[in-house]
Amino acid sequence: MLQPRPNLLFIFSDQHTQKVTGCYGDPVVQTPHLDRLAARGVTFDNAYTPSPLCTPARMALLSGRFPSTQACWTNSDALASDIPTFAHGLGIAGYRPALVGRLHAIGPDQLHGYLDRRVGDHSTNWIGGYPHSLGPLDKAAEPFRVSIERSGPGQSSYEVKDRDVTAAALELFDELASDRRRGDAEPFAVTIGLMLPHAPYVCADADYALYAGKVGLPRLPQPRNEHPYFAWWREQTDTEDLPDDQVIRARTAYYGLVTSMDRMIGQILDKLEQTGLADNTLIIYSSDHGDQLGERNLWWKQTFYDDSTKVPLILSWPGALPEGARRDQVVNLIDVGATMLDAAGAERLPRAAARSMLAVAQDGATPWLGETYGEYCTDGMARWTGAKPLQQRMVRTDRWKCVYYHGQRPQLFDLDADPDEMKDLAEDPRYAAIRDALCAKLLAGWDPAAIAAAMARRREDKSVMQQWARAVRPEESYRWQVKVEDNWLSAAAE
Questions:
Q1: CA-to-CA distance for 349 and 85, rounded, in angstroms?
Q2: CB 165 within 8 A of CB 193
Q3: What totals of helices (H) and strands (E) does the chain contain, helices first?
């Protein structure tokens, strides 16, 4: 522990690809508040998600365990309530962890160790629960062609929700400041869960205008001789022949959403300073996964290319961490929970794979194993999976990335020589020994056939729960209500 009992603020967005941030080198996007956070702290350049899909990434972060070790692989898998989370660990250490906004947990446990939750999720608690409607933007939040077609200036409920989350967070900090004035010196632990910049690719007119004509077509073309999974994925999502104007429009709106999110983060950071709560506060910003934004003719997440699987990660702790520093160590989103526990002086979670990054953040010369993993497994239950179960796993070392596809050939990239991941070396005999060694590492303790069988059995159980929820309409808790009338495209986008 670097200094006693800090306040903890974790700001957690959704689908923010690392490179669309000023402090990560994007010359177009305007993210002044994330950039000032980076200027006051440590930026990690090689942070990866444990899964390029929302719920498994988030539940892995909570538990410090990869999806295969906590049996939460898909957006319809519930994290068991008896699996301890970093919120439980903080509670043991004397904190009263609070959550404002997005959790994206399925099932009756909508707290998972948090003691105070404000502004819940927009989606149902239950498999088969009462769905929400985005009206003219329906399906535009999912991996379908309509997501690109129905894009541009306008408004979605996701941005409206984040405004409510920001307002609730500001109110919470006012309450905490009032408690301080009355003599309560206990440190706080607050997580703020944002929806942006998740699709729909629809942003406010002013934010769209800010980038109109400045965001062009994707830089990377579709690779030659690419892996067969991607041809199937484009066919499944009907994105094989998107018109250039739609691609540019969706990308432009994404930039607008990033700036809108950054503006809200600025309000939160300003409130901390105005209320005197910024002192001895560890602030962490990250996202659950990225977005491919048309690079290699791919969209959304669901792959292990860096656009999808790399996440922004910034740590700021005045007086405890250096300012304006960068780290190139390979880390994982699950390490965020372990880092907060370490800063709080709390015990490490049992059977967690997560590692605290505090020592590395303080001193870049600290020894660190440059290796991490990601998993993407489906059971065919989601409508966009085409009823085709998948088992995929990635290992990222300091130099190499290897991706295993069960039943198909792997991918192999030399990230030192090919940071854009355009040259797949998996079938090059000169790299066979490296490929085989990394595949063996991937499969050690990770059995894709056993995972597929376990997921198939679980899908039978989930089918019963889905029918039950549709039949009895169980009560929802911590749910933010979506209003159809909050969703529209401006005339310019029609």
A1: 7
A2: yes
A3: 14, 15
The number of folded domains in the chain is: 1
Contacts of 139 (CB under 8 A, 6+ apart): 146, 147
> Token pair for residue 100?
């404002």
| Pairwise CA distance, residues 390 & 380, whole Å | 8
Q: What is the CATH number of the domain that holds 16?
A: 3.40.720.10
Residue 21 lies inside a defined structural domain of this protein: yes
Residue 484 DSSP code: G
Residue 201 lies in a domain: yes
| Residues in Cβ contact with 415 at an 8 Å cutoff, skipping those fewer than 6 apart | 396, 399, 400, 401, 421
Residue 20 covered by a domain: yes
Helical residues (DSSP H) of 64-98, grouped into ranges: 67-70, 86-92
**Cα–Cα separations (whole angstroms), residue 65 to 312, 320, 344, 375, 395:** 20, 27, 20, 11, 15
Distance CA 379, CA 377 (A): 7
- 373 DSSP 8-state letter: E
Which domain does 325 fall in, by range?
7-493
What does the alpha-carbon distance between residue 389 and residue 378 come to, in Å, rounded to a whole number? Answer: 5
The label of the residue with tokens 């429009």 reads 249
In angstroms, the CA 377 to CA 459 distance is 13
| CA distances (Å), origin 281, targets 14, 274, 318, 482 | 23, 14, 7, 33
Nearest Cα residue to 297 out of 201, 219, 221: 221
Would you say residue 347 lies in a domain? yes
Q: pLDDT of the chain along its 494 residues, tens only?
A: 445 789 999 999 999 999 999 999 999 999 999 999 999 999 999 999 999 999 999 999 999 999 999 999 999 999 999 999 999 999 999 999 999 999 999 999 999 999 999 999 999 999 999 889 999 999 999 999 999 999 999 999 999 999 999 999 999 999 999 999 999 989 999 999 999 999 999 999 999 999 999 999 999 999 988 999 999 999 999 999 999 999 999 999 999 999 999 999 999 999 999 999 999 999 999 999 999 999 999 999 999 999 999 999 999 999 999 999 999 999 999 999 999 999 999 999 999 999 999 999 999 999 999 999 999 999 999 888 888 899 999 999 999 999 999 999 999 999 999 999 999 999 999 999 999 999 999 999 999 999 999 999 999 999 999 999 999 999 999 999 999 999 999 975 54
- Cβ 322 vs Cβ 362: under 8 Å: yes
